[in-house]
Design brief:
The chain has helices at residues 2-37, 41-56, and strands at 63-68, 82-84, 93-100, 108-123, 138-144, 163-164, 179-180, 183-185, 190-197, 200-208, 212-213, 217-221, 227-232, 238-241. It has 242 residues and is α+β, with helices and mostly antiparallel strands. Residues 118-180 form the SAF domain.
């Protein structure tokens, strides 16, 4: 009799386990099917808004992040949402996005926050005024685009071989307005001027009236007292155009 009871209990337990397993499988299948089968109109608005802002803000920096601040589930149904920016410009910080829909003329509005991180060059060590930069003097820092220093450089070629115009502490941003080209022409020293035009070229000697690096405009006084202005070339001469 005991054997019969034990066998009955074992059969009931096995059957219960099979029912539980079947239920779990059916539940998992239902969950897997939910995103496609139960997609709601507000999902389309949210997805379209994120995709739109990501593409519009791609130029801000390396890592763009979009966070929706509006509850899109409360918005009216929207078929084929078409996001747009009420104000022109690259979206940054707190923004408002308009949504046009194919099913009616009402415009929906979604609030979002757009942030991005950027890299820029900083001084790897303390730098003195007049120092000429080399690659080992440069380092990188990353920050949100809203905290990027004005005129900060993000390309080493913009800094290497430039001269620092003011003292920089370690970690300070390398900015275009804190650097200059090395001087090839020095005030008070002789300078060669090459005057060229259509069909002629004349070379004269003068005295530089100001300092200048490659591409800078420098004035020079001629032996007869005339003052000419030219652009410094790679060889430290002044090119004068007529």
């Amino acid at each position: 009799m005991q054997r019969i009871l034990n066998a009955t209990r074992a059969f009931s337990l096995a059957r219960l386990l099979r029912l539980v397993m079947v239920g779990l499988v059916l539940g998992l299948l239902a969950i897997a099917a939910t995103p496609a089968a139960l997609a709601t109109p507000d999902d389309a608005i949210a997805q379209a808004t994120r995709h739109f802002l990501m593409s519009q803000a791609a130029s801000l920096g390396d890592d763009v992040d979009v966070e929706l601040k509006s509850d899109t589930s409360r918005l009216p149904e929207c078929r084929s949402p078409q996001p747009f920016l009420p104000r022109e410009g690259v979206p940054q910080g707190r923004v408002m996005v308009g949504i046009r829909c194919n099913n009616d003329e009402r415009v929906r509005y979604v609030q979002a926050t757009v942030s991005a991180s950027v890299r820029f060059l900083v001084a790897a060590t303390a730098l003195k005024r007049g120092e000429r930069l080399s690659a080992d003097m440069l380092d990188w820092e990353r920050a949100d685009v809203s905290r990027r220093p004005r005129n900060a450089l993000d390309d080493p070629s913009q800094a290497i071989d430039k001269v620092v115009t003011q003292r920089l502490a370690q970690g300070m941003a390398l900015r275009s307005d804190r650097l200059r080209q090395p001087y090839l022409v020095h005030r008070g020293e002789p300078v060669t001027l090459i005057a060229g035009g259509e069909g002629f070229s004349v070379t004269r000697e003068g005295e530089a009236l100001n300092n200048g690096g490659k591409g800078d405009s420098v004035r020079a006084r001629m032996p007869d007292g005339d003052v000419l202005q030219g652009q410094v070339d790679a060889r430290g001469r002044l090119a004068v155009r007529y």
